[in-house]
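Researcher: Please translate sequence to structure tokens.
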Amino acid sequence: MGQDPARREELARRGRAQVRKFSWATRAATMRDALTRAAARPGVRPEQEQARGTDRRAAIAAALDRLRAGPPAAARVICERIVAAAPADPHAHHVLGIALMRERKPQLAVESFLAALKSKPDHAAAFNSLGVALQVLGRQPQAQGCFERALALDPGFAPARRNLALSRQDGTATGMDLDAAVPAT
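Model: Translation complete:
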């Protein structure tokens, strides 16, 4: 085989054709499609999705993409499935809370943020998000305490610093950006 140039060229051509079938974009699209299908199948249990290879971090990333792209309901569904399968996942609770805030359900969001903090008490972004939710509910002193706690955990956390200043300035949630609280996964 090593001596046959025609055969060697044929194998090289086939190899290049095979490599073109795989790319990061293709893998990302495949993962996105799988997560979209999973979110559309309410009868499938989350642990079954995990058994099929769906990674929680990838699912949370998909939920974050959904939050950034538009209506929060799809992100909420993804996070609810993760929380059902992994009740102690602080990032899933955090993103679920952000989705609930986007759906104008601040009291439910507070519960999700508290669940995130129960699992990860040093989650500065969750304290910041909880502060925004409490501010929306008119609980300014507690909101400010959350922003201060976020800053105690991460003194350089600019969104918490900005939200604390806004809370002290006018006592409303006006101008607070919940997106700033979206965690890196």
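Researcher: Any highlights?
Model: Residues 49-53 have pLDDT under 50 and may be disordered.
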